UniProtKB/TrEMBL annotation:
Source organism (scientific name): Vreelandella boliviensis LC1
Protein name according to UniProt: Curlin subunit CsgB
InterPro entries assigned: Curlin_rpt
Signal peptide: 1-22
Keyword annotations of the record: Signal
Family (UniProt): Belongs to the CsgA/CsgB family.
């Protein structure tokens, strides 16, 4: 399982380091830099485009919509790249991307910020990093081979990931206290990885479909982790280091559903509950 921890850390590090994605010829570039408060940005692009927004201040908003349709013909459908950086409080970032191989990066610091990413298509990548308090991140992906990476640091933060389709991957890492993570996956061969560090954090994983995998690795006390899997051939692995944690796994489907649940706990006063079958 140490190799799996390393794999998760490497995946997040790789995603975070690729903020400057490759740009494609033939597209347009939009760059916006703002310093101040109560600013609004709306960027709409068609074709293979690049958008960069940097905002420093409070109560700013950034909205980016990128589509893979460009006039009559598009030689490179999708291939859009959106990067948003916001430093301050009360900021919002909204990204919508349609098509193939789109990339979205959102970075937010401080308080009461929100990030919403909606990607539909094939081989899309979403990276959300939030550092501070009471921030919200909502990532929705539908299609095939989509990846979502969310790194959250602070307390009172909420992260929601919804993925629908085939061979999608979600990686959520939260460090701090009173953080919530919810991962919902529907389809086949989807993977969910969650790493939680701190106290009084909650993680909920809901998976429905065929051959799904959930991994939760946690350090800290008084945390709650719930995994619900329905369908056929699912795997759940939970490993916690700490005390007074509650781990619950519910795997439903036919009695021959071939589900596997593994729980490893280190510490005192932990409670593990597993339910398998109908």
């Amino acid at each position: 399982m140490k190799t799996q921890i390393t794999a998760i850390a490497a995946a997040v590090a790789f995603a975070m380091s690729s903020a400057a994605f490759a740009q494609y010829s033939g597209g347009s570039d939009s760059y916006i830099y703002q310093s101040g408060n109560n600013n609004t940005n709306d960027v709409t692009q068609w074709g293979s485009q690049n958008s960069r927004i940097h905002q420093q201040g409070n109560y700013n908003s950034a909205t980016v919509s990128q589509d893979d349709i460009s006039g009559v013909a598009t030689t490179l459908p999708g291939l859009n790249d959106s990067g948003i950086e916001q430093f301050g409080s009360g900021n919002s970032a909204d990204v919508t991307q349609l098509g193939t191989k789109n990339d979205s990066t959102v970075y937010q610091e401080r308080l009461f910020n929100s990030a919403t990413v909606d990607q539909e298509g094939y081989k899309n990548v979403s990276v959300v990093e939030q550092i501070g308090y009471y921030n919200d991140a909502d990532i929705t992906q539908s299609g095939k081979f989509n990846d979502s990476y969310a790194y959250i640091e602070g307390f009172g933060n909420e992260t929601t990931v919804n993925q629908d389709g085939f061979a999608n991957k979600s990686v959520v890492e939260q460090n701090g206290a009173f953080n919530d993570a919810e991962i919902n996956q529907t389809g086949s061969y989807n993977d969910s990885y969650a790493y939680m560090g701190g106290v009084r954090n909650d993680a909920v994983v809901n998976q429905n479909g065929y051959s799904l995998e959930s991994t939760i690795l946690a350090n800290g006390d008084h945390n709650t982790y719930d995994v619900a899997q329905s369908g056929y051939g699912h795997d759940s692995y939970i490993e916690t280091h700490g005390s007074y944690n509650n781990n619950t796994v519910k795997q439903s489907g036919a009695f021959w559903g071939q589900h596997t649940s593994s729980i490893v706990t280190y510490g005192n006063g932990n409670v593990n509950t597993v339910s398998q079958g109908h």
